[in-house]
Amino acid sequence: MEPYVIHPATSGEIPVILSVPHCGTAFPDELKDEYKDELIQAPDDTDWFVDKLYDFAPALGITMIKAVYSRWVIDLNRNPDSAPLYNDGRIITGLCPSTNFLGQSIYRDNRSSVDRDEIEKRLEKYYWPYHNKLQELLTQAKDKFGKVLVWDCHSIRQYVKTIQNDKFPDLILGSADQTSAPDHIVKLSLEQLSKGNYQLQHNHPFKGGFITRHFGRPSENTFALQLEMTKVNYMNDDETLYDHTRAERMRSVLADTLLAVAKKLVS
């Protein structure tokens, strides 16, 4: 099984590609017995329903790539050499996590880390295929339009004490400290997102993970932005169920934002 699923554009293409790297919940047969069974039934750090939230995209001309496997197998938005994304004291799971966000061991043997040989196997089988396919999609779109944006889609609980004590804002747009996309694209994205009356922040506390930092190359006309959102904006208060009313409000803002950015890219 490929470690990704592609939902191709179903109408005239526009120069935006969606990446959903943390919606996967599957575990490869060769690995699943190594994890605590009660945890992998519903892997807690999943960006639940984000692919469903954005499933309007193909009808707008946007291709979506989404992960199949859980980020507990390998995190597609981490640096492949395991270099930390932040150095401000926050606790954040690694490339191949051994704990969940709350520090609970996810393996039956309570291992404190995954050995390097195993990491290399997972990179080859699950990580690089996703990244290579995303690069292929971006190259195709840039060849067609001259410019392209990857919009990296994420969600998070309102509270994750291992990262910060305070509640997260509704929306956090990450532009890798304004290096992954031109200022006018970042500004337009922020303006459009602000129309939804959500609490919006830029680059804090998340400025984009490896996908944003790696694929955002403005000098090559390949841009990248990450949108993190708290789950209650499209799920119920317990962050367990998809809430259609909340989701429709968010979907409207997302669609308008993506269309506005695409229009700017081809103008």
Quick take:
The protein has 267 residues and is α/β, with parallel strands linked by helices. The chain has helices at residues 29-32, 37-40, 50-53, 116-145, 183-193, 210-215, 244-266; strands at 4-7, 16-20, 63-67, 148-156, 171-174, 200-202, 222-230.
Chain-wise SSE layout:
Blueprint: E1 4-7, E2 16-20, H1 29-32, H2 37-40, H3 50-53, E3 63-67, H4 116-145, E4 148-156, E5 171-174, H5 183-193, E6 200-202, H6 210-215, E7 222-230, H7 244-266
What is the distance, rounded to the nearest whole angstrom, between the alpha carbons of the first and last residues? 39 Å
CATH hierarchy: architecture:
3-Layer(aba) Sandwich
Strand content: 5-15%
Low-confidence stretches: none
* Total domains: 1
User: Structural class of the helix and strand makeup?
Assistant: alpha/beta
Largest sheet: 7 strands, mixed
* Physical arrangement of strands within the biggest beta sheet: 1-3-2-4-7-5-6
Question: Would you state the CATH class?
Answer: Alpha Beta
β-strand number: 7
With helices defined by DSSP (H or I, 4 residues minimum), what is the helix count?
A: 7
Helix content: 25-40%
The SSE string, one letter per element, is: EEHHHEHEEHEHEH
Shape: globular
